[in-house]
Amino acid sequence: MSGFWTLVMRDLLLAAREGGATGTALGFYLIVIALMPLGLGPDMQLLSRIAPGVLWIGLLLAALLSLGRMFDTDQDDGVLEILATGPLPLELVAAAKALAHWISTCVPLAILAPVLGLLLNLELTAYPILVGTVLAGSPAISFLGSIGAALTLRSRRGGLLIALLVLPLYIPTLIFGISAISAVVTPPGSLEASLLLLSAITIASLVIGPIAAAAALRAQLG
Amino acid sequence: MADEDRIVPDPALRPGLAVEQLAVERGGRRVIADLSFTVAAGEALLLTGPNGAGKTTLLKTIAGFLSPVSGRISLGRAADDQPLAEQAHYIGHLNGVRATLTVAENARFWAQYLGGREERIPPALERFGLASLTGIPAGYLSAGQKRRLALARLLLVPRPLWLLDEPSSSLDARSTAVLAGVLDEHIAGGGIVLAATHLALGLARSRELRLGFAAGQA
Fold this sequence. Notes:
The complex is a heterodimer of chains A (222) and B (218). By secondary structure, chain A is an all-alpha fold. Chain A has 11 helices and no strands. Chain A starts with a helix and ends with a helix. The mean pLDDT of chain A is 88. The radius of gyration of chain B is 18 Å and the shape is globular. The longest helix of chain B is centred in the last third of the chain and has 16 residues, at 173-188. In chain B, helix 3 packs parallel to helix 5. Mean pLDDT of chain B is 82; it is low at 1-13. With 218 residues, chain B is of the alpha/beta class. The chains are: A mainly alpha (222), B alpha/beta (218). Chains A and B meet through helix 1 and helix 5 of A and strand 5 and helix 3 of B.
C-alpha cells in the first residue's frame, strides 16, 4: 500500500509545482459563472432558481479540463512503464491518480463554489448543502474521468474526446447533486434521499473507474 | 545423503529466462514468429538485428506490456507466483524521468514506488556520476545525464531480470564503461541482462541473439 500513497503524494507535489491544472480549473470556473449573470440579465429570482444547476455544470466542465493530463504526461516521459512494472496493480495506480486529481482539482473547486454562489444569488441556506454535495459527488468526476483519460491516452489532442466520453457518465451525479440543493432551496424534495443516491454513485465509481481505467491502460501500454 | 539437503548453487537450478515459441503481432503484422531461446542466470544476451526486427517488441512482451499471440515466457520455477514484470527492470527509449522533479526526487520516487531502500539512492547516483546534480530539476539535464539517471534505477531496487532497450544511447565513452561495469556485476551476481543494442556495450561475457524478420515478411 505504500506505493499507493507514494504515487498520490508525487502527483500532488507535481500538481503544486507544475501549477497549471488547479489554477486553470479555478479560473475557468470563475469566468463561466461570472458570465452567467451577464448573459441572463440581472433577474435575481431567475438567477437564484438556476444557481444550483449552473454551479454544478460549471464545476463538471472545470474539472474536465485537467483530466486529460492524468496519464498523458506519464506516458510521454515513460513513467507509465515504471508504474506498470511496480508492485502496485494498475487498478490501484489508476485509483491513486484519480484520488490525486480529486484532491488537487475537485476540492479547490468545492471551496470556490460557495463564493461563486454569491454571484448567482444562491439562497443562504443552500451554501452548506452545496459544498456537501460537491464533496460527496465530485469523487465520481475524478474516478469516472480516469476511464476517459486512460482511453484517450494515445490520441493526440484527446481533450475534447474525453468530454464526449465522460460527460454522459456524469449525468446521475449532476441530477442528484442538483436535486439535493433544490430540496432545500425550493421544497418539496428529499435532501436525504438525494445525498444518499449521490454517495452511492460515488462509491460505485470508486470501484468501476479504476478497473475500467486499468483495462484501458493495459491496452495502451505496448 | 547430507549433500541433497544442502542448497546447491548450481547455475542450472537458478532461475533463468525461458521463451518458448513466442509469436507477437503489432498492428496486424507478425513481428516475432516462433521464437524460442533461454538465458541462464548469470548470462547476458544481446539482441541485435536491423531496425524493425522486433527487438523492442520482444523486450516489451517480456516486460508484460504486450500480450503475445502465442507462446510462453517464464522466469525460474513455474510455481513462482510473482509476475514477471515485478522481477524485471525495463528501461526503454523513454527514460521515465520527470522534468519538474529534481534528480534526487526522481530517484526517491522510484525507490519508494518500486519497493527499494532509500539508502541505495546516494551510491546509485554516485556510480553514474550524478552525485553533484541531485538538487537540479531533471529537465535541465543533458540527454546523456537523463539516460544515466534512468540507468541508476537498476541499482535502486534489486531485480533479477534487466530488460534494456539501447541502454548506451546518448552515453559518452566513460559512462558506457560504467554501464558495462554495472552490467558485469549484475551478471556475476547471478542476474540476467537482456539488451537490445546496436553499439558494443563492452561486456566481459555475453551471447548474441540476432533477430531477423519473421517468416513471410520482407
